[in-house]
Specification:
- The structure is a homodimer.
- By secondary structure, chain A is of the alpha+beta class.
- Chain A has three domains: 284 residues, BirA Bifunctional Protein, domain 2 (2-Layer Sandwich); 99 residues, 3-Layer(aba) Sandwich (Rossmann fold); 68 residues, C-terminal domain of ProRS (Translation Initiation Factor IF3).
- In chain A, a hairpin with a 5-residue loop joins strand 12 and strand 13.
- The longest helix of chain A has 26 residues.
- Strand 5 of chain A pairs antiparallel with strand 5 of chain B.
């Protein structure tokens, strides 16, 4: 099975597509640009969901649910927002089908035209702030710290599984605050939550930054982001957190009585991560043999494969496998015992490698006799014979070792693919090779856009902890006060 | 606050609407028929989700995610299905907005018309069976036991929060099997899961039954259901599980190679429960003081309210409350300490009664001295003074007592509102008064529809364990072989 994967070297993009399909993560549906997330892929998403959801709740947030549809007129209320989203949205115009009077099956009933068209939400700021207007009267009603887990639709023309799909799953936090400072602090706090999640759970090292004006979310005053480096040298934005100022409060007339008994507009943030993280996860760790999953979010952490020829052997091996399974499970590990008799061990080995299971235990008749098991690590592809004495403790410890190893490997890769560059020739050459390019910027959108035009690289972020330095813009030659990060990106 | 609730006696329907709003469960949105599920309401739904999800996984099911949109032509493939859903669906016809050339804001871009319209899923049989065609080759690929948590849209003309909304949240299980027997067994198994969930978690007693042909799901050969009795004497269908035969396999050409190496169509089931359960929960237990929540799904199980006048008292009471809070939490209870200094205890008492918190503990200075707390039960509205010695154990035990009491109360109500009726005059009179009417049926749709026409009662279900008896149809006077259940219903 794994042999059928295109290698990364050969064609990285094809490798990714092959892997998503062959590891049973997702597939295209009959609806253009919409994916089916298959059970194995969805199980990984569920671990992401559960970990994030707990982090949100631990930081005082609650979940709620807002409508799928947004009245068209809501989009016109915030000028930047409509520019950002109007060009790629699904529009509901009718609410009924009927039998075609000419006998051509089912057609839209023209008499069921909506008075106002509805947009399938591409993001929910507008409908949520329309709702918040009724929830907020005074400073006592603030802050509001809501999150929503939902599907959203953006009518992308070129789609790729997980990375860019017309429909995707995400969470969107929408908070309301009495002061600017509190809202800014919230936006940054959630960036911190995303950073911790990406690094601790997904083992993906990320840079924390803030977007240039040109790359901001439509309607935001500040867009914070986490950015990761994929194995092909392209950057991937893994999460964003926006300080929205009072833009949406003004657009939807959301005011509160402050402690001085004066009316003021409410301050806002929004922040989100999506099933795009599945793409980041895949491209950070996987290899030419298939998926490599960090143990924390692996649906199966240990797979046990029995090896036998005779029936007697099968009985003895089976008993040992079941014993180990229950010992490992008692330790809290997620274990699959692959006792299918329709497939040979070699086939199973390949299949679970392809699916990225962190640890494989193979048990044969000799292992039963000698009290051993053959342990194979997916991250290093190494094998060793291990005593079954306290195997559950050793395998549990190994999970942490693997988790850290994957993070370290990705961190080394990212760091060794981040380059300080000081002149335009080097800049162009390095962008062509890939990686983050760290270079002086004069602070203008003009320069940023010209660089994009000439190299296809975008200004990924200004580091959150940027130092003021004196230098010269790598492209324009004008004075510059800081270095920023450029890359080609997903 | 609670005083503003309409009483059930006065106007049951208004009582329900008031309660949903005032207990902060949900509200209408700016989009016709679509609700906002507020954080407190959503938290209850999350407990329902988590409990059900575990039960599904424990019975071998996995989650997946299928597209929100369904190509219009898919609906025509299964004749009954299109009849059932075409009349109430949201139709996407365009994929872009644009600025009105006449300056009237944003309008639909006529050049972005879709070649084929997309329907926002009202249920996902069609798109899922279109997908299953590629997943199923032989009997080795079966069974497929998928569930999906999703939003769906049915363009209802008359909507009510939770009970009937244009968009709602639900889960839909879709399974594929090699044999008819296995599919039938699956449909019945999931009915059992729903029954256990309704009774053990929601404390709602339900009858298990099968629908008459006339009330079947569009495309099903058999629709199993659980039916509950609300406090106004109306029935509520709380969940359904469908045996779909080979209808969808035939419509989407899903065949498998059986063990005899012959091609055959695959057998199907689907089953679902929705946010409608929130309505069932509210109407089963709540009273004129507000919501009454079974402890198993109460977001807050115990609220602690401090009572003090002087500052010294505040300090002592606060310390005791915090101590009790952590002792209760250590016991696994979900505890809220309401230490707001902006509201008086009486206000808090009413608010938490309105929100249905099962147990309230009030602690005053005398309680601190005497080592007691005042415990109030929401289900019985009784109060007692309790020693704080092992209070965590006693309160934890009380949760089970309350859970069982709510179930028993609802069961007694349901049983005392189920009537055996043997003639048409009694039938009409009883239906008018409310409750389930258990009467002989001649087995014809004709009789069923006439009864509906004359009384607005529907044939709710044929009991799963129906006994064959000899009798006379209560309406037609024709020979009848069994008694079935009628009621007016939500």
């Amino acid at each position: 099975m794994a042999k059928e994967l295109t290698t990364r070297e050969e064609n990285y993009s094809q490798w990714y597509n092959d892997l998503v399909i062959k590891a049973d993560l997702a597939e295209q549906s009959a609806v253009r640009g919409c994916m089916v997330i298959k059970p194995y892929g969805y199980a990984i998403w569920e671990f992401m969901h559960d970990a994030l959801d707990k982090m949100f709740k631990d930081t005082g947030h609650v979940n709620a649910y807002f409508p799928l549809f947004i009245p068209k007129s809501f989009f016109s209320r915030e000028a930047d927002h409509v520019e950002g989203f109007a060009k790629e949205c699904a529009v509901v115009t009718h609410h009924r089908l009927m039998n075609d009077p000419n006998g051509n099956g089912v057609v839209v009933d023209p008499s069921a035209k909506l008075e106002e068209e509805l947009i399938v939400r591409p993001t929910s700021e507008t409908i949520i702030w329309d709702t918040y207007r009724n929830w907020i009267k005074s400073y006592r009603d603030l802050p509001i710290l809501c999150n929503q887990w939902a599907n959203v639709v953006r009518w992308e023309m070129r789609t790729r599984l997980f990375l860019r799909t017309a429909e995707f799953l995400w969470q969107e936090g929408h908070t309301a605050h009495a002061t600017k400072e509190e809202a800014e602090a919230e936006a940054q706090k959630m960036l911190g939550v995303y950073t911790e999640f990406a690094e601790k759970w997904l083992a993906i090292p990320v840079y924390q930054g803030v977007k240039s004006a040109n790359e901001r979310f439509a309607g935001a005053l500040n867009t914070y982001c986490i950015e990761a480096m994929m194995q092909d040298g392209k950057a991937l934005q893994a999460g964003t957190s926006h300080f929205l100022g009072q833009n949406f409060a003004k657009a939807f007339d959301v005011k509160y009585l402050n402690k001085e008994n004066k009316l003021d507009y409410v301050w806002a943030t929004s922040w989100g991560v999506s099933t795009r993280l599945m793409g980041a996860l895949i491209m950070s760790h996987s290899d030419d043999d298939g998926l490599v999953l960090p143990p924390h979010i692996a649906p199966i952490q240990v797979v046990i494969v029995p090896i036998y020829k005779s029936d007697d052997q099968r009985v003895a091996v089976n008993a040992r496998c079941l014993e180990l399974k229950s010992r490992l499970e008692a330790k809290g590990l997620r274990v699959k015992y692959d006792d299918r008799d329709t497939q040979k061990p070699g086939f199973k080995f390949h299949e679970w490698e392809l699916k990225g299971v962190p640890v494989r235990l193979a048990i044969g008749p000799r292992d039963v006799e000698e009290g051993t098991a053959e342990l194979a690590r997916r991250d290093t592809m190494t094998k060793e014979s291990l005593s079954i004495e306290n195997i559950e403790g050793n395998v549990a410890d190994l999970m942490d070792v693997i988790q850290k190893n994957l993070y370290q490997k990705a961190l080394d890769y990212r760091n060794s693919h981040t380059y300080d560059v000081d002149n335009w020739e080097d800049f162009k050459a390095q962008i062509e090779k890939g990686g983050f390019v760290h270079a002086f910027w004069d602070g203008t959108t003009e320069t940023e856009l010209k660089i994009k035009e000439e190299t296809k690289a975008t200004l990924r972020f200004i580091p959150l902890d940027v130092k003021e330095e004196t230098g010269v813009d790598v492209y324009s030659g004008k004075p510059a006060k800081m270095r920023v990060y450029y890359a080609k990106a997903y």
